[in-house]
Structure formats: structure tokens, C-alpha cells
Amino acid sequence: MAEATIQVRHQSGLHARPAALFVQAANKFQSKILVRNLTAEGKFVDAKSIIMVLTLGVMKDHEVIIQTEGADAEAALDALRSLIETNFGEA
Amino acid sequence: MPKIKFKGIAASDGIAIGPAFCYIPAELTIPVCAAGSVKEEMVRLDAARQHAHAELQGMHDAIEKRAGKEEAFIFKAHQEMLSDPALEGKIREFVEIGQTAEQALVNATEELASLLAGMEDELFAARALDVKDVGRRILRILLGLPDTALSAVTKPSIIIAEDLSPSDTASLDPDLTLGFITAQGGLTSHSAILARTLGLPAIVGMGNGLLDNVSNDTFIVMDGRTGEMILKPDQETITRYKQIKMQRDSHLQILKSAAEKDAHTANGRRVEVAANVGEATSARDAVEHGAEGIGLLRTEFLYLEDAQPPSEEKQYHIYRGIFSVMSGRPVIVRTLDIGGDKPPSYLPFPDEMNPFLGWRAIRISLDEPQLFKTQLRAILRAAVGYQARIMFPMVSDLDELRRARDTVETVKRDLALASIEFASDIPVGIMVETPAAAVLVDVLAEASDFFSLGTNDLTQYTLAVDRGNVKVSGLFQPLHPAVLRLIKQTIDAGHAKGKWVGMCGELAGMTRAIPILLGFGLDEFSMSPRAIPEAKHLISKLTDEKARGIASQAMSFGTAADTENYMKGILASL
Which of B195, B227, B255, B347 is least buried, going by the fewest C-beta atoms within 10 A? Predict the structure, then answer.
């Protein structure tokens, strides 16, 4: 299992475009991927579900924990981490 | 007599005259019958979802072509929801306890939508509608019904609806849609935003009685500027609105072509028209409205959104992004301009009796050199390859200006020593917004490459009037003779020293002030993006000689009221 804590800097948080991009990226991997809003002290939800990711209510500057488990766990974690760290391609 | 005039929220500008088309989505009733096996029901669902995916793709492509990628993105999100594992799992749970695909779908979408609807943040809560929209689409397909959403409109009509979902607005045919009116919704609802993007008149939030009062083919006049809807108007009303619409259409045409060109006076003098850009307005919006540059880039929003000051990297990226959108057009970055009226938590603000006369703007930057240097480093680095300028707010004497400039030099030296690339030849200027600076322009010109008049504060300080105090806000008169004289004096003194003088205060975008400022010889007018087309058009109608005449007449009045009256007459005669 791999795990990382990352701060979301995007203006919209995990809403609208960033949320959809996040879920799209998660869906490219076989591994089971869970995500949790650390700042709001929420539960872990399935990162491949846009509805559940939206229910996390991740806003700008919130921290999320991502957990991946499976054959491509490391690659999945790297991809999601870099998506958030590069601010979803918006510099 | 029945009520014929209604008022809602003016959501998108424009006038439409024509018959109503009442859009009442078909009631999707779930047939009561026994469920097939779990496998059978899931197979039916999968087929329906695939069909829905194709429909959404079609809508996405159509909207992308019509309104752009951003607007179309919602349908990508809907596609994502179709194959959502949470939705899938919920549906399966219901099917496994013996429900039909239809029942399971409705129950599952309701349950997930209510999860979202219950969220505290409105933006997230609003996504419940998307889940319902998606659920409804799958259900409709399961029931074997065609996608009728608004496709029944066959002649140019005004669409009347309870509310319009993203799917609904996507199927609007812009050639047949004169405008739309909804009972629900607000200014930021998806449909209102799309209407503005498509340039369709729209009124939202008309109230629950809307569909009781309007039926198919009811003749309607709608005014998206005021939010008014008139039912069954008489001939006189129709003629009047037709005239307004015609005038508006041709005026819009003129404004559009004026905005596309660089601004010139009627005798050909080049005048720069730029935009003020801050948190709420984007550089892209400015360019779309014809901005030839940014005359004022506010940076305070960066400092107010966090519990700590923005890092150099964060600022660098934001400035660089804006410079690149402006692709080579000049951008004036104003350094931090905050004060005790809106203090960030990380600065030690004292309790102030008069925050506007207190610790603010350049005073803070000079007292907090680390904060100031970080911002200057970010600007200097981001400006490489672009036409940027630095501007200090609220300077009131040469000493402040020199100290601020010295800091710029120190930062440049540090960057050079660290072999970090930066724009070494960046012009540095000040905002003229204190009467002290206005009076001292000839002296300040020694250390300032340019000047930009900030008329809101200049008016406030000159007239000793707090705009926010309702008791005296009526005395806040930007066309007050004292303010006009200070403006003229600033421009004259700046020009005498060979310096460029612009204006980034609200006055620069006011049609009643533009002829006077043009007459004063102002070099640049910077305003909110939406005011640009009108300003460019007005400038193109005036010769410098005529503007000078207007300015000298305006200067002769003893009260702001006289000047206002005089300018009203001038604008009416143009």
C-alpha cells in the first residue's frame, strides 16, 4: 500500500474540473484508490467515484490523504500526486 | 384585469419579442412490474448507460463548438457520473433486493443526490442537480423515450420553464431561441451563465406562478436588462420595444467594432484604453472586451485569501500567467495595497481610528521589507520577456518613493548575484492618489518613470469624504472642481517632465468624464473591462480640439453639480 498527504491549491478545490480530472486519472489504474479530506476530518471514499469525491467537500488549501493498493499502486499515487501538485495543469 | 407585467432577475442582457414555448419536461413514470433476474436488470442498465454516454458526447461536442471548452466540460462530468462506481454499487444493491432497473436507478440517484444536497458549501450542494440530471437521462432511455428536451421547438420562441438543467440548455437551438425565462434559478445558475456566453437574453427567478400565467404561443416581450416580462403586449408596446431592440443591436455592432480596434480620437491621436484587473475580473475577460493592456493589476487578493503571505513562487506563477494571457501588451502591477479596513491575519495591525489615514499600502511595504522584497522578486522574475511595469500605491513624498525604488534596486542586485533571470529595465511608477503626490508631481518625476491617477482615493482624500459613510457619501464627487484641477495639474506637470500619465480610477471609465480627461491630454484610460467598448467608441467620436473645449468649460464651474449637468448635455449632443 502507498500513501501520501497533499495540499490542494486549486481555487475550486476538488470541484468541477479538478474533481473530474482527478477521477479520470484515478480510473486509469487497476489499483484500489481511496481518498480522504484530512482538513475536514472526513472518511475515506473511492477516488474513482466522482460523486463520492465531491462529497468530500475539498476546498482550496485543504489537505487530502490518498491511499493506493494493488499492482500499480505506486504509479497511481505518483500520477494523482503530480496532478494535484501541478495544480491540475493550470500552473 | 389580469397582471400582464412581471419582474424577475435580469440574468442576461438583451430584448426578445415573440411567442412563448413552455417547456414542461415529460413526467417519467416508473411502470409497476416484476423485476427480471439481477443479471437481466443490470444488462438493461448497462445498455441505457452506454446510450446515455453517446447522447452526452453529442451534447458535449455541440456545446464545445458553440460556447467553448469550459461550458462543455459539464457534460464530461456527467459522463463521469454515468460510470460512477458509487452509483453502480448503489443500483446493484437495490436490484439485488428485487427492484427493477428503473426503481433501483431512481432510488440510487436520490440517495446519492441527497448526500450532495446536504453539503454545507453551496457549490458542492448544487452538484446534486447534476446527479439527478444524469439519473433522469438514464431513466428516460430505460423507458424507451426519445430525448425530447426542447427539440419540440420548431419556430423562433422564448423558452419558458420551471428551471433548465445543463442537459436542457445544451439542447437549446440558438437559432430558434430568442431568449429564456425560468421560474427558478439565480444569477450564477448554469443556465444564466450559459445565456450570457451565448449572448441570449435571459430572466431567471421569475417565481412559481410563471407557468400558470404563460402558455404556448402567449406573445411576450422580455427585457433581459431589467428582468421585465410583458404578456400579450399591445401594438404600441411592441413597436416601442422593437425600436429599442433595433437601436441596441446597431449600437452593440458599433461598440464591438470599436472595441476590436486600438483607440484613436476623431483626429487620429492614439489613446491607450486598458483594463483594471483583480480578483473578480480575469485578464482574458479584459482582452475579450478590447483591453490594449492592463493599467492596474491589483495584487491584494493574493494577500487576503490565506493565513500566510503568498510565496514568491505562487506570485511568480500568477503574474506570469496574467502576462502571458496579455501576450506582450503592457501590464502595470501595483504592489500590495491593503490597510486596516481589511487586515490579513499575519500583519500586526493596530486598532486604527482612521484606517484610510493609517498603516496601509506603500507604508506597510516599507515597514515590512521582507514582504515587499518577496513581491518585487516575483514581479521582476515574471516580467522577463513581457512588457510589465511596477507601480507603488499611496506614495506621498519623494522620500517614500526613493526608499521604494532603493528596495527594487536591492532586489535586482540580489537576483543578479544569485544568477536568477529578471527584467532589469522594468519601468517603475507611482499611483497619484494622495493630494500630496498630485501637488508634487514635478518633484516626484525625478524618481518616477510614469504616473497613474487613482481617482477614488484622490477624490476621497481631496474632499475629506469617506465613501463608505452614508451620511457623507453624497459629497463624494469625482467631478468636483477641486479634483478636476488636481487631475489637470498632475497631467500637465507629468507631461512637462516628459512623463506618461494614465488613470486607473473609476473616473477613467465614466462616459461623463472621458471627454474632459481627453481634453486634459491623458495618455491612458484604464477601467473595468465591461466599460471599454463604450469608452473606445466615445473617444473615436471626439477630436482633441473639441475635447479641450469641453474640458476648459468643465473647469470653469464652481460645483460638481454644474459640471455633471453640463456633461449630460454634451453626451446627449454627441
Answer: B347
CB contact under 8 A, A16 and B73: yes
Q: Looking at chain B, which residue has its C-alpha nearest residue A55?
A: B116
Distances (CA, A) of A57 to A37, A45, B130, B138, B273: 8, 12, 16, 26, 41
A10 is a catalytic site residue: no
Pick the closest to residue B392 from B332, B347, B351 (CA basis): B332
Convert the pLDDT of each residue in B397-441 to its tens digit: 999 999 999 999 999 999 999 999 999 999 999 999 999 999 999
E-strand stretches of B101-192: 157-161, 177-182
Return the residue matching grid coordinates 495595497.
B337
Distance of CA B441 to the CA centre of its chain: 34
- A58 touches B: beta carbon within 8 Å: no
Q: Please tell me which residue in A10, A15, A36, A62 is annotated as part of the active site.
A: A15
Q: Provide ipTM, 2 decimals.
A: 0.92
Please report residues of B whose CB lies closer than 8 A to that of A55: 115-116, 119, 124
The counts of H helices and E strands in chain A are 3, 4
Q: How far apart are CA B108 and CA B93, in angstroms?
A: 9
Residue contact A57–B131, C-beta within 8 A: no
